[in-house]
Amino acid sequence: MADQVTVLIVGAGPAGLVLGNLLRANGVDTLILERGRREHVQTRARAGFLGANSARVLTEHGLGAGMLRCGHSHDTCAFRYGDGEFELNYAELGRGEVHTVYPQQALVTDLIAEYLDRGGRLRFDVTVTDVDPTTGTVRHRDGEIQGRFLVGCDGSNGVTRRAMPASAARHTRDHGIAWLAVLAQAPQSMSAVTYAMHDNGFAGHMARGPEVTRYYLQVDADDSAEAWSDEGIWAELGLRMQVEQFGSLRQGPITERRIVRLRSDVVDPLRHGRMFLAGDAASLISPSAAKGANLAIMQAEVLAKALTDAVKGDERGLDAYSPTCLPRIWRAQEFSHWMITLLHGPAAAAPDAGFQRVLRRARLDSLRDSRAHQHFFAENYVGI
Ligand code: RFL
To answer: Which residue, by CA, sits nearest to atom 37 of ligand 1?
Structure first.
C-alpha cells in the first residue's frame, strides 16, 4: 500500500516551493520530493529578475522578506547597436512596473526555510522514477507515494511531463541559437541591463547582486563552455559591448560558465487525470526575456487556490487551470520570441541575411523613437 498525502509535489524549484508554501498557509497536507540535496538546490544560480507579479505574489503571501531586505529594484535597460546606444526607463512606461533583482538561489533558500516552518514535508535526495497520473502515484527507489493530487514541478526534462499522454500537445521550437551564460564575481559594469547587438553576435549584461554580474555571449550552437577561457570571455564581451566607446567592464573571476540553448515549448493541456504541471514542466521559455521563474510563480499561485478549493470539494478551479494559465504562458512566449529576433542577427548563410539585418536595425530605431513601441516593450518586459 502506497503512503498517502493530499498534494504530492515533484521538484523543489520556485514552482514547487511557492505552491507548497501557499498550500501550507491554507492548511493543506503537502509533501515535496526533490532529487537534489538541500545544499545543491540552495546554491543553483539561475534567474535573478523578478517581475511585478512575482514580487506581489511573494509579498502578499508572506514569502518576500528576503527579497525586500536584500533585493533591489531595477528599472532601466540599454540597447547598444551600430555606433550608438539608447536607454529605456521602463518605470516610466507601460504600467510603470519595475523588476526586483534577487538571485533565484536566495529565493529558493528562503522558500525552503519558510515551507518547513509552515509544517511542510520535504524530502531531498529522492528521485521520482515513475508516475501514474490517473491515480496520482509516484515511485522512487524506496517505494511508492500516492497523492490525492499530484503536481509536476520537476522542470522541462522531468518525469511528470513524460507521463502526459500522447494526446497532449507539445508545441516545441529550437531557436537554433546558443548562449554562453556566465557568472562573474564582479560588480555590475553599467547601471542598466545592457543588450549589445554586434556583428559577432549578441552580448548581454545584467546585475545579480552587489558583487555578482551575469553576462551572456551568443556562441556557435556546437560550442562548449570549456573552450572559453576567462580572458577569451572578457575580450569578446569587451568587443561586443564596445568598451572603447562606452567604458570598460569591471572584471573578476568567472565562477560559472554554461551553454544554454534557446528553446521554447509548451504542453497543452497542463493536466492529466489527478496530475497538474507547473513551471518549466509546463512550459520551457528561453531566458531572453527573463520569464521562466516568473511564469512558475504565476502558475503556483493559480494552482494553490484551485487545489485548496478542490480539497474542500470545489474542483472548478482545477478545471480552469489550463485555460487560465495557457494564454498567459503564450503571451510570455510571444514576447520572448520577439526579444530573440531583436537580439540576434540572422544566420550568416541565410539567403535574406542582408534584408533581415536592416529590418532589425529599423525595429531598434523604432524602439528608440516611438513612444507607443516603448510602452509595448515595457508592458511585456516586466509583466506576465
Ligand atoms: P526548476 O527550478 O528547474 O526546479 C525543478 C526541480 O525539480 C527537481 N527534479 C526532480 N525531483 C525529484 N524527482 C525527479 N525525477 C526530478 N526531476 C527534477 C530538480 O532537481 C529541481 O530542483 O523548475 P521550476 O520550479 O519550474 O522553476 C523554473 C525556473 O528555475 C526557470 O524557469 C528559471 O531559472 C529561468 N530563468 C530565468 N527566469 C526568470 O524568470 N528570470 C530570469 O532572470 C531568468 N534567468 C533563467 C535565467 C534560466 C537560466 N538557465 C540556466 C536556463 C538565466 C539562466 C542562465
So the answer is: 47
